[in-house]
Amino acid sequence: MYVIVEINGQQFKVEEGKKLFVHHMQEGESGTTVEFDRVLLVDNDGTVTVGTPTVEGAKVVCEIVSPLVKGDKVLVFKKKRRKGYRKLNGHRQQFTELTIKQIIA
Fold first, then answer.
1. Before 67, cis peptide (omega within 30)?
2. What confidence tier does 105 reach under pLDDT thresholds 50, 70, 90?
3. pLDDT digits 0-9 by tens, 46-92
4. How far is CA 43 from the centre of its chain?
5. Does residue 77 contact residue 88 with C-beta atoms inside 8 Å?
6. Residue 58, SS3?
7. Over the Cα atoms of the chain, what is R_g?
8. pTM
9. Which residues lie below 8 Å from residue 68, measured CB to CB, with a gap of 6+?
10. In percent, how much of the chain has pLDDT > 90?
11. Whole-number Å distance between alpha carbons of 37 and 3
């Protein structure tokens, strides 16, 4: 069984027991339980239910494993040839690590 759920404006395919990295959530501490009710699709062993726009009564229960995880560093390099213009900018995205405890559908 899996579901498609919307978390912080992004859609994720979720199964029980899996880990998930979502954009940083401000209101979370380690060990806290979080529920998401924006379930867009439910696949229960081949029986697919598509929401309009969401599936009624379906929700995903997650536990916050780590409230702040930093992603890989991304370097952005800009250059204009023969002009002496070079810029280097780095960025590390912040994520929250979740573990899927239960899918209620």
1. no
2. confident
3. 899 999 899 999 999 999 999 999 999 999 999 999 999 999 999 99
4. 19
5. yes
6. coil
7. 19
8. 0.83
9. 24, 94, 95, 96
10. 92
11. 11
